[in-house]
Amino acid sequence: MKREWALVGLLSLTATASYLCRVNVSVAGAGMRSELGLTQTQMGAVFSAFLFGYALCQIPGGMLADRWGARRVLAAASLGWAAITAALAGLGAFYAAVLVLRLLLGVLEAPMFPSAARAIAAWLPPGQRGRANGMVIAAIGLGSAIAPPLITAVMLRGGWRTALLVSALPALLAGAAWLKVRVPGQAAPEAAAPAPAGLPRSRSFLLLTLSYTLQGYTGYIFVFWFYLYLVEVRHFDLLRSAALSSMPWILSIVSIPAGGWLFDRMSHWRRAVPVLGMAGAGLFTAIGAATASPYAAAISLALATALILSVEGAFWATMTALAGPRSGTAGGLMNMGSNLGGLISPALTPWLAARFGWERALHVSAALAVLGALLWFWIRETPGPAAAAETGPPTPLPPVPEQQQRRRPGGDAAP
């Protein structure tokens, strides 16, 4: 089992590398705008190009993981992230080239979390998947915390192009590592069966996806607007805003794996983790929006961010329990829902704020988080008879001889 957890560690490092390639342009954007003469609107289109490709290819990326295995997909994807980031540093002299490259980066990053979910479903038993998924998704906070100081330090010395090249190195190393490692045999029978076509159609899976969409709506508000909210609404200076805006991501490095660990440890009350996490995020969002104290608002909203992210392990572990051998495809669909919420909330929230005020705009987010929590009362962690009848009972594969494994290096799910 130590080998399996070492590979979960590699999944976490790969996710961190993906986030460095994802957010590097946000930090290096000032240098890019100055050199390339880009407007704020054009930079917004660059950010949206990534999100469009990323959301659009979640399901195809998950299908690739189901068909070819996480190891192969992550090896190819990681090397692709490094190549595209290097191309952006060398060829990003034209606005159109920047748009196309960021779109392609989103396409290639789409398989990251569906592939990780597929791998965890294949390598680990159900009682350990919450904490494993929590570890991998905690890379969101780690990557977001590392990127600003790292890229800024390199950019000040070597310019934005050098900073992009440096940010691509972890992806290059991750891709090389996935080419070298050998994954363990199947640990879970339901992940060992060949993945059937189609998507899970159970009510629980649909409610899970809807709840994750609402979770994404709330979470992405803090990703895109927390810093600007502190500056423009709560009137902190830039230095204090920068320090306070790092607080949610520091907290999330602890809250995400802790939520997954609690979800694994609890037996009869497992849904309490996502219910209390999302409802608590809604409560602290409402408090942060309503309080007159700027510091109380910053602390409350930081706690809301940590709580809304603490449920990640519960979502992904429940998805693998419902989807079984289709965890990659189902994870892609669920994650697409979260990113659709993320596409809507950064645009809708300031629109609501302009017309009704930031307090009411954040109260909408709080209400949606609570609604997402309530949906968990109708989510079952097993597919149920109707969903199980779609594919029949899972059929474990016979063990593959060790000699044959050496002749045929491949993915984590040998068909």
Note the main attributes of this structure.
415 residues; mainly alpha; Growth Hormone, Chain: A; 2 domains; 18 helices; disordered C terminus
Describe the protein's architecture and organization.
With 415 residues, the protein is an all-alpha fold. The protein folds into 2 domains: 1-192, Up-down Bundle (Growth Hormone, Chain: A); 196-383, MFS general substrate transporter like domains (Growth Hormone, Chain: A), CATH 1.20.1250. It is built from 18 helices and no strands. It has helices at 2-36, 40-56, 58-68, 70-91, 95-109, 112-123, 129-137, 139-180, 189-192, 203-232, 238-265, 272-290, 294-309, 312-323, 327-356, 358-375, 384-391, 402-407. Helix 2 packs parallel to helix 5 (95-109), helix 3 packs parallel to helix 6 (112-123) and helix 15 packs antiparallel against helix 16 (358-375). The longest helix has 42 residues, at 139-180. 54% of the residues are buried. Residues 187-197 and 384-415 have low confidence and may be disordered.
